[in-house]
Write a structure and sequence with these properties.
Layout (H helix, E strand, L loop, with lengths): L17 E5 L3 H12 L7 E9 L4 H14 L5 E4 L7 E5 L6 E5 L5 H18 L9 E9 L2 E9 L5 H19 L12 H9 L3 H11 L15
Parallel strand pairs: 5-6
Antiparallel strand pairs: 1-4, 2-7, 3-4, 6-7
């Protein structure tokens, strides 16, 4: 399906939040299949975790993430496979950012670590309803006067390790720019739909023949390993 952006919202009350739709890449189709087979296993739920120290503003960080989510259609995407002939990515015009802030300073360090472990496990187990955007959420938990625990949870259908790191760098740049009261001068993002449009024009049989030739004789898995974060 060609990539198209809607200049004006559709008339339907159900679809007036939709900006565009397009298909899934082969890798996404595989992940979608596995995710649907094990909906309660927390499969493909990724967590980025870090410690943040003062000076730090949770309010500015939230605004930076809101800016990034509005810039990147991928972060406003859900998936529909039940009402479509083929699975589709549905990009929404706006989404509400799931954001949690908690103050744990009244707890001991041991109690904090135990509670954090429980919350991270519950967060992963919760997973996502991949038919409803956004497939990402955030939590900032204050551990002491100058120490915070930050969690960014997202579905792997949206981002791989490379693109997630790029989003993080952009958010940090926006955050610093806001803190210095200056505009974050960033290039316009390239919509993922452009890649899907390019992919739809590729010769599948030609690609299959290429990889069949170059992988000829390989009968065992390679030792290549991908590590996220």
């Amino acid at each position: 399906m060609p990539f198209t952006e809607l200049d004006t919202p559709p008339q339907s009350s159900t679809s007036n939040k939709v900006v565009t739709t397009y298909g899934l890449s082969p890798l996404q189709e595989g992940m979608l299949f596995h995710a649907l087979q094990t909906p309660h296993a927390g499969i493909y739920v990724e967590q980025f975790i870090c410690q943040l120290r003062q000076p730090f503003s949770a309010e500015l960080l939230r605004k930076a993430w809101e800016t990034a989510v509005q810039r990147h259609a991928t972060l406003r995407t859900a998936f529909d496979w039940e009402t479509q002939e083929k699975p589709q990515q549905i990009v929404f015009r706006q989404v509400d950012l799931p954001w949690v802030e908690e103050d744990l300073r009244s707890l001991s360090k041991d109690a904090q670590q135990q509670l954090l472990g429980q919350k991270l496990a519950a967060d992963r187990q919760l997973g996502f309803d991949i038919t409803k955007p956004p497939l990402t959420r955030f939590a900032v938990r204050r551990l002491s006067d100058d120490n915070y625990h930050f969690t960014w949870t997202f579905h792997h259908l949206l981002l791989d390790g490379w693109s997630a790191s790029m989003v993080l760098r952009e958010v940090l740049f926006i955050y610093r720019s806001m803190g210095e009261n200056r505009k974050a001068d960033l290039p316009a993002p390239v919509p993922f739909g452009r890649y899907m449009e390019w992919l739809s024009r590729q010769d599948v049989e030609k690609a299959k023949a290429f990889w069949t030739k170059h992988l000829q004789g390989m009968g065992e898995p390679s030792s290549y390993k991908i590590v996220m974060f």
